[in-house]
């Protein structure tokens, strides 16, 4: 399918390029060599004929691999929040508890309340 679409795009691009080049003023042809125009045509059409179909095919393959994984990832995210949410909350509470200060005969002792 991507190869057929790229073939159509290459044909359309070639027709549009040819149409615009033929409508160019005569000064364009006096300044620009014919070889440069032909090279430009061939490079643009070559990219559409060779590189673009394989890249579109790879993109479609990646999309079809990733889309089925999205519901699984969404489910795992909610499961993680449900199961580990309480554990993470308790852990963060014990880690961030403030230090307390006791004075014993003028000496300051810091202790963590667990």
From TrEMBL:
Classification via SUPFAM superfamilies: ABC transporter transmembrane region
One term of GO molecular function: ATP binding
Key words of the record: ATP-binding, Membrane, Nucleotide-binding, Repeat, Transmembrane, Transmembrane helix, Transport
Any one GO CC term of the record: endomembrane system
Protein localization: Endomembrane system
A Pfam family hit: ABC_membrane
ABC transmembrane type-1 domain location: 1-67
Membrane topology value: Multi-pass membrane protein
Broad class of where this protein is predominantly found: membrane
Cited InterPro entries: ABC1_TM_dom (IPR011527), ABC1_TM_sf (IPR036640), ABC_transporter_C-like (IPR050173)
Descriptive protein name: ABC transmembrane type-1 domain-containing protein
UniProt organism field: Chrysodeixis includens
